[in-house]
Write a structure and sequence with these properties.
Elements lengths: L2 E5 L2 E4 L4 E8 L7 E7 L6 E7 L4 E3 L7 E6 L4 E6 L8 E7 L3 E3 L2 E2 L5 E2 L3 E6 L1
Parallel strand pairs: 2-13
Antiparallel strand pairs: 1-3, 3-8, 4-5, 4-9, 5-6, 7-8, 9-12, 9-13, 10-11
């Protein structure tokens, strides 16, 4: 079974940093598309970042220049390094194995495998 587990969330002050991890299992980690999404209270889920096994990386407009996505294939893990965090980054962050990331701001969610989220709270 495909499983993903996000971790690394926490409480941080504005301007601080966090690194989220997404540990994946149940599929070949040499051909993947892994995406991060987030959902804040009362808001719709939104795309954050995406990485493909060929090295392509995408970032949604609100996080460009502040977040960085990477993968460690040996550990079957994708990371999201978040810097210069803002209160509006507060949300539950989810990672998912998706079929396709269309562009910086739109990732396919049909057929996705979702992990449990991790809470990120940024205080002002």
């Amino acid at each position: 079974d495909v499983q993903l587990q996000a971790s690394g969330g926490g409480l941080v002050q504005a301007g601080g940093s966090l690194r989220l991890s997404c540990a994946a299992s149940g599929f070949t980690f040499d051909d993947y598309v892994i995406a991060w999404f987030r959902q804040a209270p009362g808001k719709e889920r939104e795309a954050v970042s995406c990485i493909e096994s060929d090295g392509r990386k995408l970032y949604a407009n609100p996080v460009q220049g502040r977040f960085s996505i990477s993968a460690d294939n040996a550990k079957n893990t994708v990371y999201l390094q978040m810097t210069n965090l803002r209160p509006e980054d507060t949300a539950v962050y989810f990672c998912a194995s998706v079929l396709l990331c269309y562009n910086d701001n739109n990732y396919a969610t049909d057929g996705a495998y979702w992990g449990r989220g991790t809470q990120v709270t940024v205080s002002s």
